[in-house]
User: Which sequence fits this backbone?
């Protein structure tokens, strides 16, 4: 697999696209005015403890107070209480880290279990153990990394910088196969970083930022680079220089991959990235076979429905269904990454009779999900034949990032028909006529609604005029939506 990372930078936003074998797989967007806060560390102030929920709200200086549950609070050794009131109280200063960005109406999810990360390691200053990413599956490699890291920490105990001071580490997936010298460099970087964070936390006012994670283009060098990435193209000279400087200091092996793109043709047009982003906002996803997916994102969960569409196969119905589901499993894994869909996800594959076909579809789904940087868990097939899975959500989906609810339908995706609105108006006219003494009633509504009242419903209008004993006049308001109307007693 060959992969390229494309980075488009403007004063308003930074966009990063991961392209594998010429196909867009992942898009990350960071807007200058709405930078994500996951990983940021704040010196917060407890504004309210809620014993019923065993949680507290903490003011960290953002628009909404953050939320912290008792399970996310680091407890000193010997402290066994789970009573939030004994751990946090109103007005108390507390150093917290953002675990999840604010989503919708919810504030940021917080934790006092602090960490800072580099490319290969995560440093946990409050812990004392070494653990390793589950994605490194080779047993020998897992043992090697843990042993070498432990040896480096032992050697660093007498270091003048005290880089081996107490603290735990998580070995990240990217560390697979790296030499011990790389781990040593990361330990030094993380310890120096943490000492700086500690100093700032002691001298920073409450409800203010202590540590901010790297901007997206530099975070990309730390997070997204891996085996198979052949080139990192960026269209900003300033960002290119900062990426080179960052790579030279922390990841010299990446320097030869970074390339400035000065071309007149926009960088994202090279692989039709703009078109792919547009398609990722659509509800329907066409499959090459003629089948299609229907993806619906709600607050509670995301559902994906698989349909055969125009694909009829060459042998029998079961073969057609199996081939469509196999293609859909791969496409679903890509769409989850591309759209950054998280939380509970329900997949409605076309019903298959043969158990072996069901197993193969699940296998191809799990295999395709292995490329995903977010943690995914396939829970299997329910009694209703639905595949249940979860994908870790730490930031807004692509749709929520780029779109907003429709002002007409308020996000429902539907509006009342002209017929329904007409009948509402006729009922409302009766109420208005009884409530007000007037010579006539004036109805203001959209063109579609007025047309119907004067055409299909004209007989109903005539009957109503006779019933209320007053004339009804109509006026078109081109700026009104189909559901909007006013009835004015004149």
Assistant:
């Amino acid at each position: 697999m060959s992969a390229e990372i494309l980075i488009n930078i403007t004063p308003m936003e930074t966009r990063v696209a991961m392209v594998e074998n010429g196909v867009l797989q992942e898009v990350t967007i960071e807007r200058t005015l709405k930078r994500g806060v996951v990983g940021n560390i704040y010196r917060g102030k407890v504004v309210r403890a809620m014993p019923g929920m065993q949680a507290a709200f903490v003011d960290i200086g953002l628009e909404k107070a953050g939320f912290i549950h008792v399970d996310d609070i680091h407890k000193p050794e010997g402290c066994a209480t789970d009573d939030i009131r004994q751990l946090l109280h109103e007005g108390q200063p507390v150093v917290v880290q953002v675990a999840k960005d604010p989503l919708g109406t919810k504030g940021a999810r917080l934790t006092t279990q602090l960490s800072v990360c580099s490319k290969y390691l995560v440093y946990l200053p409050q812990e004392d153990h070494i653990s390793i990413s589950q994605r490194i599956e080779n047993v020998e490699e897992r043992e090697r990394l843990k042993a070498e890291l432990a040896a480096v920490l032992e050697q660093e105990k007498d270091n003048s910088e005290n880089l081996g001071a107490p603290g735990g580490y998580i070995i990240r997936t990217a560390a697979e196969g790296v030499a011990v010298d790389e781990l040593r460099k990361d330990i030094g970087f993380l310890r120096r970083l943490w000492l700086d964070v500690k100093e700032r936390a002691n001298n920073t006012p409450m409800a203010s930022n202590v540590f901010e994670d790297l901007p997206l283009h530099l975070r990309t060098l730390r997070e997204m680079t891996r085996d198979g990435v052949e080139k990192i193209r960026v269209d900003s000279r300033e960002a290119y220089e900062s990426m080179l400087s960052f790579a030279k200091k922390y990841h010299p092996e990446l320097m030869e991959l970074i390339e400035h793109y000065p071309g007149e043709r926009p960088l994202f047009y090279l692989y039709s990235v703009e078109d792919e982003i547009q398609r990722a906002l659509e509800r329907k996803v066409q499959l090459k076979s003629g089948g299609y997916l229907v993806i619906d994102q709600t607050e509670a969960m995301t559902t994906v429905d698989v349909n055969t569409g125009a694909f009829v196969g060459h042998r029998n119905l079961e073969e057609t269904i199996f081939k469509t589901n196999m293609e859909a499993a791969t496409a679903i894994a890509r769409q989850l990454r591309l759209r950054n869909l998280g939380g509970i996800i329900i997949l409605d594959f076309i019903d298959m009779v043969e158990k072996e076909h069901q197993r193969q579809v699940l296998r191809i789904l799990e295999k395709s999900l292995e490329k995903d940087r977010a943690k995914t868990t396939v829970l299997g097939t329910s009694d209703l034949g639905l595949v249940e899975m979860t994908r870790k959500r730490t930031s807004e989906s692509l749709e929520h990032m780029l779109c907003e609810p429709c002002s007409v339908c308020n996000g429902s995706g539907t509006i009342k028909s002209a017929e329904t609105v007409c009948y509402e108006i006729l009922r409302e006219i009766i109420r208005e006529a009884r409530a007000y003494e007037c010579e006539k009633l004036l109805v203001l509504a959209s063109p579609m609604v007025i047309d119907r009242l004067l055409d299909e419903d004209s007989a109903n209008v005539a009957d109503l005029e006779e019933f209320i004993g007053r004339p009804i006049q109509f006026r078109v308001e081109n700026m009104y939506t189909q559901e909007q109307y006013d009835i004015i007693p004149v």
Residues 180-202 form the longest helix (23 residues). The first strand starts at residue 3 and ends at 9. The CA atoms of residues 287 and 331 lie 8 Å apart.
